[in-house]
Design goal:
The protein is 74% helix and 0% strand. By secondary structure, the chain is mainly alpha-helical. The protein is elongated, with a radius of gyration of 17 Å.
């Protein structure tokens, strides 16, 4: 079930450069994911870049779900058609 929570586009926009920086470091293997996660999930308030990544993940989940739903609907119509 998807959340009805609105995507915080401003948060994503403010931290986009940092998200790209961290993703690039992971891709180039100049940083390790467990170290990055530890830094992001330390005690206290959530790291703003981590919050932006969560927002982007929620957007991706919603998009995937919508596409899957459309494909199922389309298959049903063509099978009946």
């Amino acid at each position: 079930m998807l959340s009805n929570k609105t995507i915080d586009w401003e948060l994503i926009a403010r931290h986009y450069d940092q998200m790209v920086k961290h993703a690039t470091a992971l891709r180039l293997r100049t940083a390790e994911s467990h170290q990055m996660l530890r830094r992001f999930t330390r005690g206290g308030p959530k790291h703003p870049t981590y919050q932006a990544i969560e927002e982007l993940a929620a957007l991706s989940e919603r998009s995937t779900s919508a596409i899957t739903s459309r494909m199922r609907s389309s298959r049903g119509r063509s099978a009946r058609g």
